[in-house]
Model the fold of this input.
Amino acid sequence: MSLNALIIVSALSFYFGVIVQCDVCFSDKDYENAIKYYSEALELNSSNAIYYSNRSLAYLRTECYGYALADATKALEIDKNYIKGYYRRATSNMALGKFKAALKDYETVVRVRPNDKDARMKYQECNKIVKQKAFERAIASDEIKKSVVDSLDIENMTIEDDYDGPKLEDGKVTLTFMKEMMDWFKDQKKLHRKCAYQILVQVKDVLSKLPSLVEITLKEAEKITICGDTHGQYYDLLNIFKLNGLPSETNPYLFNGDFVDRGSFSLEVILTLFGFKLLYPDNFHLLRGNHETDNMNQMYGFEGEVKAKYTAQMFQLFSEVFQWLPLAQCINSKVLVMHGGLFSEDGVTLEDLRKIERNRQPPDSGPMCDLLWSDPQPQNGRSVSKRGVSCQFGPDVTERFLDQNKLDYIVRSHEVKAEGYEVTHSGKCITVFSAPNYCDQMGNKGAYIHLRGSDLKPEFHQFTAVVSILYSKSLYLLGLSSCVVSPIWLW
Ligand SMILES: [Mn+2]
Done:
C-alpha cells in the first residue's frame, strides 16, 4: 500500500471511529463524551450540518443552551434546508425563554413536515406561551401590579374539621410546628393552604426588610453551614438536617438558591426553608438562585407543582416572595457567597451590590443577572456563557474582584459536581451543590460546607442521595417531576 493510501485509510478509520463513539455516547446518555467526539469530528470536517446538529442536542441535554443555540445556528448556515437544525434552534431558544424566535423555527418545521405530530405539539405549546406573554404585557401596562397579599383574607380562611395536620401556633411558626410539618411532608401530606399562606405573607415581610447584600459576622467559636442547590429534593434536605443537625440559633445555615424546580417536592422544600427563616430570622439565611424566577418556574416545574397542589394565586405570591430574596451574603467581610458567580465587567464593588434594586425579575444583563447566572471557567478572561445567559469568568477575573473588595474567596453553587463540591481558581472560587443524584440520574454526591469564625477555612462534607425515586414515582407519572417537564425534547 502506498503511503498516501495508508494515510487515507488511517484517517478514515479514525474518522469513522469517532462517529461510532459519538453514537455509543448518545445511547449511553454520556453527553459529555458525545460533545467531545463530535467536536473532534468537526475538527476533521467543519462543514457537516449533522455533526453540529447532533452536538447541539448533546448541549441541550447538558443544559448548555447558549452553545446549543450556536451549534444549531451553525448547522443552518451550512444547510438552510436541514429541518432538524430548525428544530434544535427552536428548542434552544425555547429553553432560553426566547419564545418568539422559537415560534418562527417551529413554524418552518411544521410547514415542511405537516404530518409530524410532535412538531405540531411543540408549535402549539410555543404559540400559546407567546400569546400568553403578549396578554400579560398588555395588562401589566394598564395598572400598577397589586400584591396578592392585598386580595387575601387569611384570618377568615377556615381550617376544616377533618384536617389533622400541623397548624401555626397563634399565627406563629414554632419549633414544634416545624417538626410536625417536616413529618407531615415526609408522609406526602399537604399543608393546609391557610398555613402555607401565613408562612408566605410573613416571610415576604421578613425578606423585604433585608438588604440585597446581607452581611454577617461569625464569632471565633461560631460555625455556619453553607448548602448549594436543593432543587425540590425534599428527602435529601431532611437528610442534610439529619447529618448536620436541625437549624437553630447555634446551628446556622445558609442555603444558596435554587430551592425549587426539577425535583418533585419543591413546595415541601421551600415551605420548610421559609418556616426556618421565620423561626430563626438572624441565623437562617436564604439567597436567590436563577430558579427563583418566573421564567424558570414556568419551564422547570415549580409553577405547575404549586398550581397542582394549591392554586395559581399562590404561585403569584411565591413569585412576589422570591423577588425579595437577597442576592449575596458576605461573611466576616472576607467570604462572599452568591448563587451564580462574578460579573461580566471588572470594577463591581460590594457597594454596587448593596445598591441593587432586587424586587423584580432579573434583567438579561448586569450585576443582578450575573450574580444569579454566571459560571467560573479554568482559562483567564471571560467568554460567552455555555448557558446563553451572563458570562463565564476566569481565575484572573476572580483575583481582581477579590483584591478590589478585600475578600479571601467566593462560594457559589449553580453547577452539579460529581463530588458535590469543587475548588477552582487556586482555592478562590468554590462551588457547592447539595442535590445528590440530581434529577434521579446524575449519580453525583451532594455536599455542604462548614465555615468557622476562627479561621474561615472551608471544610467540606459529602453525602449521597437517599432513595427518593420510590417517593417521586407517583408524581413522576402525574408529570409533576420537572425532569419530565424539562424543555429538553428528543426528536
Ligand atoms: Mn442555578
Q: What stands out?
A: The radius of gyration is 24 Å. The pocket of manganese (II) ion is lined by residues 229, 258, 289-291, 339, 414 (CB under 6 Å). Residues 472-491 have pLDDT under 50 and may be disordered. Residues 304 and 416 are 24 Å apart (CA to CA).
